[in-house]
Amino acid sequence: MISNQERVDSGHGYLPQTIPGRSPNQELLPLTAKVNSRDCLEIGGCDVTTLVERFGSPLYVLDEVTLRTACKQYREAFARYYPGVALPIYASKAWSCLAVCSIIASEGFGFDVVSGGELYTTLQAGVKGDLIYCHGNNKSAAELELAIAHGCKIIVDNWLELEMLTKLADELSSKPIPIMLRLTPGIECHTHEYIRTGHLDSKFGFDPDGIKEVFAFVLRQANLDCIGLHAHIGSQIFEEQPHEDLAGVMVEWMKQAVDCGLKMRELNLGGGLGIRYTEADDPPSIDEWVKTVSTATIEACNRLGMSLPKLIVEPGRSLIGSACVTAYTVGFRKVVPGIRTYISVDGGMSDNPRPITYQSVYGAAIANRMSAPMVERVTVAGKHCESGDIVIKNALLPETEQGDILVVMATGAYNYSMASNYNRISRPAAILVHEGEANLIIQRETYQDLIRQDCLPTRLTPKLC
Ligand code: LLP
Question: How far is CA 425 from the centre of its chain?
């Protein structure tokens, strides 16, 4: 591993190095990243600086090969380690749009959606309802109705939802509605540590202490088919032990359900595998992670005399995080003597709210001078009217000048999906790159788009003289 310091001393710029056998979630840049003869960053066979000339900046550049490779690695790992049926489903909250959903659907994945909007997007991408699992701790009646109409599986979060569903099932469905029950397993994960507690302060899911009552209620509802249990313990997790523990306790609860008379056959262990945002991050590979959850599930089933359930996992970040970079154009440089040098870019917290929200750390490169030596530490600032709008604090970069194209790595997960129009800044375009071809998958918002939903009462209409 080359640390930032070594990169300075060796005088090299940022030269992406993909190590064969590693998973996309262990890479900083998309798998197809290389430096071309113009010393520019190329992704998916497209020169990023040319993409910016053509499509403007900021620009999300999404690499199809990286996304498909991550999907394939999940699929192949399940084939290797889990003898029963397994279904990875994409946590579409990471990035929901038609193109992303349709690529992932074509890789044989199901979908996790958390709102009517995500459900609608997934359906519009051509995904069949029986491959869609609907989440949410406060689903509206309209969301439940849409899910039922399309034969989706509903992951029930709480008592109110159970009661709403029993009523809706009678009105709307001729056959029992497939549901799963979400539990709060008492395994709490922070990025680099986890705690196991008896009960957890979480807004999601049923408390396992009262689960027998839930099982008994569900058993009495002929219009609900309770197919399994679900839990999700957190995101950007590098440790494997929490998921191993999770599989163990979930199989125990499934056994209790089966003993109560429920015909449970699916076990959903959520998502959470982390990705590399900087050289300091060292997540396990997709293969290792799948091996851990598969082995733990098999062991628990053997121990408790249970047949293997259909095993479901819900990766979001580890599928799409490393497949995308965001390209910005560098503007003003401000030197605060003895304190800090700022360089400003033409985006920031509206296209990537993660640094200001979670203090997330990212890596960057200068796409038009990839081999230039990393000589200075600068703070990359966004253009929003907010002092905290910092993209990267103390980034190690080559000397930069106005007009340079600065690329922030690993922005595929929870960037576009959490983007806003703060300061009435248009959300960027997104481009899918593949074998030298660049396709627009999300149009850049225009000023007209920004006022599209505004309504002006007639009495306020400006009088033009
Ligand atoms: N399943 C459930 C029920 C979830 O709540 C989540 C993420 C996932 C799956 C996918 O987890 P992943 O594989 O992506 O770790 N906005 C935050 C992340 C929030 C994650 C919420 N739930 C961020 O930008 O870091």
Answer: 23
DSSP H or E stretch at residue 147: helix 141-149
Query: Is 35 in a helix, a strand, or coil?
Result: strand
Mean pLDDT computed over 387-415: 97
How many residues make up the chain in this entry? 465
Q: Which two tokens stand for residue 42?
A: 């190329």
Asked if residue 112 has its Cβ within 6 Å of ligand 1, the reply is yes
244 burial (CB, 10 Å; 0-12 / 13-18 / 19+) is middle
For residues 176 and 143, give the distance between their C-alpha atoms in angstroms, rounded to a whole number: 18
* Ligand 1 nearest atom to the CA of residue 230, by list position: 3
What one-letter code names the amino acid at 152? C
Best substitution site from 314, 322, 415 to test ligand 1's pocket, by max atoms within 8 Å of Cβ? Answer: 314
Contact criterion met (CB below 8 Å) for 218 and 205: no
Query: Reduced to 3 DSSP states, what percent helix, strand and coil does the chain have, rounded to the nearest 5?
Result: 35, 25, 40
Ligand 1, atom 21, lies closest to the CA of 235
How many of the other CB atoms lie within 10 Å of CB of 204? 17
Q: Which residues does residue 324 pair with via DSSP β-bridges, in sequence order?
A: 62
User: What secondary structure letter does DSSP report for 346?
Assistant: S
For 185-246, give the DSSP string.
Answer: -SEEEETTEEEE-SS---SSSB-GGGHHHHHHHHHH-TTEEEEEEE----SSB--SHHHHHH
Whether 317 lines ligand 1, by a CB cut-off of 6 Å, is: yes
**Distance in angstroms (rounded) separating the CA atoms of residues 73 and 79:** 10
Per-residue confidence (pLDDT) for residue 7, from 0 to 100: 41
Least Cα distance to 322 among 64, 46, 48, 104 occurs for 64
**Catalytic status, residue 324:** no
Number of CB atoms found within 10 A of residue 34's CB: 16
Among residues 322, 315, 354, which one has the least CA distance to residue 232? 315
Tell whether ligand 1 has an atom less than 6 A from the beta carbon of residue 315. yes
> What's 31's DSSP letter?
T
Q: How far apart are CA 12 and CA 374, in angstroms?
A: 7
Q: Residue 40: what pLDDT?
A: 98
Q: What is the pLDDT of residue 12?
A: 46
Question: Quick one: what percent of the chain has pLDDT higher than 90?
Answer: 90
Q: State which amino acid sits at residue 231.
A: A
CA distance 382 to 384: 6
Cβ–Cβ under 8 Å, residues 269 and 231: yes
Residues 434, 231: Cα–Cα separation, whole Å? 35
Within 13 A of 67's CA, how many CA atoms are on the CB side? 31
Domains assigned to the chain? 4-63+323-450 (2.40.37.10), 135-314 (3.20.20.10)
pLDDT of residue 10: 39
